[in-house]
Every structure is written in C-alpha cells, then in structure tokens.
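In the current project phase, the collection of sequences with tokenised folds has grown. A representative record is quoted in full directly below:
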Amino acid sequence: MATKVMGMEKESLILGRFKKPFDIKELPKFPGYAAMIGPGIVWAGLSQGSGELIWWPYMVAKYGVFFLSWLIFYASLQYWINLEIARYTMATGEGIFEGFHRVHRIYGWAMFIMSMIVMLWVGGYVSSGATALAALTKFPAGWDAAGQTRFWAEVAIIVIWIIFILGPVAYKVVEYVEILAAFISFGGMLIAVLLSPAVAKVAGEYFPALIPWYASGFNMLPQNFDAKDMNIFITLIAYTGAGGFWNLLYSYWVRDKNAAMAAHIGRVTSPITGEPEPIPGVGVAFTASPEAHEEWKKWMTWQWIENLIGVVMNTLTIVLTTLLTYAILRPEYLATGKLPSGFKLVVYQAEWFGHLWGDVGRGILYIVGFFFLVDAYITALDGAGRTVASNLYTVPGIPERVEYRKIYYWVVTIFTVIGMITVLLEQPGVLVLLTGVTNMLIMVIFTWVFFYQNFVLLPKIHPAGKIVRPSWIVLIFLLISAIFFTYSFALYLDVTF
C-alpha cells in the first residue's frame, strides 16, 4: 500500500511495489560478439563447483549410470532461467532483485532473505577447496586434516578479500578468475579422459547412458536409493548448472558487461584503485521503434548464444568428471565403499589423475579441485555485495545518500568475516549441502514468478511494450522447468519428512 506524506506519495517498503518509472534513453548498438563474450563463461566457471566436482561423482560412484540419463535434461532447464534473468536486466539496466521488488515488495524481500541465508554458509566452498590444498601441502605440519583444511580456508578467504578490495573493477576480478577456472578445470579433465585406458574400457557403457531416460526410465530415484542421500539429490539438481541464487547473479555479470540498456549503468569499482561510476537507483528503458526492435533482436540473439556457451561448457565438464568417476572411482566404491566425505572431500577424486601420473597427477588434481570450488566463493562474495546493494537501492532516499559501491564493499567485508567464522563450525560438505537445498527452493519460486514478471509485468511497465516480451517457445520451456523443479523439490520433502 502507499500512504500520503506531506502531500507526496510515499511507497510502502513491505506491502507495495517498487514503482519508480524508468529513465528513457536510446538502446545502444550491439558492439559485436567478440566484445561481449564473458558472462556465459563466468556462469560456467561458477557452475563448475560442488555439483560437478563432488556430488555428481558421488552419485555416479554410488548408483552407477542411473542419474546420467537425467544429466542433459537437468542441465538444459537452467538455460531458460538464465535467459529470463538476462532479459530483464538487458531491457531495464536494473539488477534482477529490483525486478523482484517491482513484482511486489514482499516477494522482493523474501527472495533477499533466502539469498542471505544461502550466503551465510558460502564459506563451505572455500573449505571444500581447502581440503585439496591441505592434502597437497600437508601444512601446517603436525596438524590433522581438519586443522590443515581450516588453516588454508582462512588464508584463502583473506587473500580473496584483498584481491576484491584492490581490483579496479569488481566484475573484472570475477571474470578473470572464472574464465581461468573454467578453462583449467575443463582442460584438465579433458586431458585425463583422453589419456586414460580405464575410460576407454567403459565408454561403451557410459555414453549410451547419457541418452535421456535410457538408464532410468522416467524414475527420478533408483530402487536402491538411500534416503540419507536426499540432500545430495536435491543439491545435484540445483547445481547441474549454477542453481538458485547463483543463477540470479548472471543478471549482474550481464549488467557490468554493458549489455543493451545496462550500458547506461555504471560498474562497481574499487574504493582504492578504481574511479567511481554512477549507479542510479532506477533503471533505464528504450521506446518502441522499428530500429530499436531490430537492435533488440541482435542483443537477444547474443544472449541466446552467450547463455548456450555457458550451459554447454558446464554440461561437458560434468560429462568429463562423471566419466572419470565411472571408470576409476566406481570400481573402488564397489570394492571398498569409499566416497567423498568430511575434511577429505576432494581427496577422493585425486585418482582421476593419480591413476595416470601418480603423486604428480594427484597434486595437479588438488590444484584443479581448489580452482573448481574457491572460484565459486569468489563469485558468491561478489554476489552478496550486489544483492544487498541492489535491494537497499530500492529504498527511497538510499540511492541519493549512499554510493552503491560503498554498500558493496562493506558487505564483501562483512561476509568475509562470516566466512572465516563458518568454516570453523562445520565440515565443508554439510555447509555446501545447506546452500544446495535452499537454492533449490529459491529456484522453484522465481521460476514460477517469471511468468508474471517477464510475460506480463515487464511489457506493461516498459516503454517498448511487447518488444521485450519473451516468445511462446520460451514460455513452453520455462513451464517445463518450473514443473520439473517443483516436482523434484516436492519429492525431496516427501522422502525427507
């Protein structure tokens, strides 16, 4: 609801909507694909985290090829979510959370709170990656695996904070790290697959299992499924890609890449080494015209391709990690019952390289595993700063009084401290699973709301009208995604509770 204060309308921060009209500016010209490559690979780098390195291998080692027949289907669903996240930001220059507040304040704040719950446990990614450094260095000498893991986690968290503070442009820090991580991870796995005799022996069993529903029928769970693995099951679905809150961060990478109307919005820059760029409290929109329509098609075609690069790259990474698992780690599980766990969460996967190159190979895997997981923490830290700043920027008066980047860097610092505390409290696997379950719930909710936000509300409030509305093809595939995610989460609740 809105109230009248001193003759002026003051919007409600709880019961109303964020209704500030967009500024009107010209839709920028599409600069070409070479200039715009980045957000899709960043998304792939983030996605190549716990699902790809830990939980998909866990499920394949324990249950064989059953879940592989869902892999391509799982992965494809997130494509349509990313598309709609990017569409809103490209059309308005606003981050996706401003869009949530335009749907309704209650919805916006609810999504903000759930996202912050996810962020409380994000230190688990650093401690998961630190299990690899602990195994590689055996330092500090005389400490047990838990102590060494926590030591390296604390060191990594501090170093990452320093990199953030000194990096001139926040997005560039994330982009460089994620592109490096994506190619190191993918390249390392590909080399191991191509050289491994064990992989060649199982290829005839493995690749047919990737055909959707070949190995599972239409059953979501195998007959021998252990109900204790339901947290892993739902995390697996959420993280066959970025998942939940992490998907929403795609909005900010597209924005800082200056895609479409986001080119009129400033980037987050370092308070020490960067020059301030203006970030307004309201987005910008273009008006309808034949020329704008044609230019918008170019921007959306780029997004279809850019998004596809990220999804395909991440899916291929899962194929590589699960192929190595099926060839090398599943026989070991059948013989010994060994699975990734505790403070040696990444140590188990060292045999992917170890069976080829011995201790040198295991050492390389530890480094690759560290990149797999710590890059996710870097991206999440950036996401925390943007999420808090974007939500606060929907509050009247704050954009005029406080710089967006000041909020961002204060939040990055606060969550750095939180991360340093949480890695001392629980084993890394537990922390990551806590984020997975919450992210699945977030994804179920916003996927359904996108039908209203982008198909109904956006064309209504945007000066370009139906030009920015998604097509019926998108509607169909988004509906499939919403139904599937909802059913999966309902199955999780049914089995768990």
